[in-house]
Please model this.
Amino acid sequence: MNDKYDVVVAGAGCAGTVFSTRLAARGFRVLLIERKREEELGPDSLDLVDSEAFEFSGVGLPMPPEACSQIRRMEVVSPDAATRFNLDRFPYRVVDRRLLARRLMEGALEAGVEVKTQCIVGGAEIDNGFVVSVQTDRGNFPCRLAVGASGLERVICRDIPGGMGIPRRLRNSDYISIYRETRDIIPGALANGMEPGLFKYYIGRYGGYSWVYPDEDGTVDIGTGVQDIPGAPDPREIVLGYIRSNPSVGEKVLHRAGGRMPTRRPLNTMVTSGFIVIGDAACQSTPFISRGVGGAMEGAYLAADAAAFALEAGDVSIRGLWSYNYEYIRERGAHMAALDCLRIFLQNIPEKEFSWSMAKGLIGKQEISSALMGRFEMPTAQSRMKSIIKGLRSVPMTVRFENALKQTQKVLELYCQYPREYDPPEYDEWARKADYLFEDVERI
Model:
């Protein structure tokens, strides 16, 4: 094919469509490639999306029926169910992912994005260190800039030589396996603490989390996320086990979804010459709770601004695209990296110790709120001292937790020093320090 696009985007998820819409609205010729049919876009499930992401990315707030009922309150429960507390803030909206995907696609088409569905991306063509073409089963599409937005598949990333900086593969321990179902509630049978509008979040189970959310419309959303390591239980069996043991839950399945999600810190770099990676492919979901839509929209917004500037300047080298890295780390990524430290620490605590730590206040409302809200806040000296006193009966656990907090603070400070411009020696030194810090976290 002789036509050359300004941008070719692989993947029509939230990140891909937001990015494409923003570039096309600025007059660039954009091709959006998706392997699914248009009517299949978006998982057939409900999801939690942080309200700030809609405002930040310029995507209008969802309205019914895309926006489902508002969560009235959220209760966090320890693995042994003996300790629980309510969150003061819960800035998420329950959204129908398929309807959101439809709205985003309509916006992309209105902006002038060219869309090819049922088209499978196979890889990329590299020329003189630049990505210059996206290869598919329907031909090659030359472009000035390629964008990887294929989520877990990370198709183009897997085809890029390792020396170009973006990792080709992630470790299994960087993923969490998720399964969820939405079912009817049997009329008049609401029991077992299932209160309409109450989102119950069970933390620390199987190295992950579970939730139960009875809606006021007579349905209940049930799900679990399990750390993706050898010997981990099947999340589907956990959900079905809860359903079988709860007489309030009906037989009819309204929504069902599952899969793997990256839960680690952001990539050290999300750009290389001629290529940008966004969304789940760039590990932009919130660590530990794996909420990826908000991060994908915010990342796509920032990436689009950097891409437009680079295209207008005629410089799509790693140096020309670098502002995306810097702005994302400054706006969101530094806190995601800090929260990844807490994720690694919490996932390595046995459930019995996790429950004890919540009961004694070592792991308290502030730490859990930070993980759920996506903003790490270091506990005050006074609150830490109270936690230390409460935890004196288990000095090793107290010391481990204090060390984890100190390491988390170091990570946050380092990521706040992310290089503003691309200077290879400076970046290499920064990346080396970041990798060393996370190696230390895994040893705590």
Observations:
- The chain is about 40% helix and 25% strand.
- Residues 336-441 form one domain.
- The first helix runs from residue 14 to 25.
- Residues 380-386 have pLDDT under 50 and may be disordered.
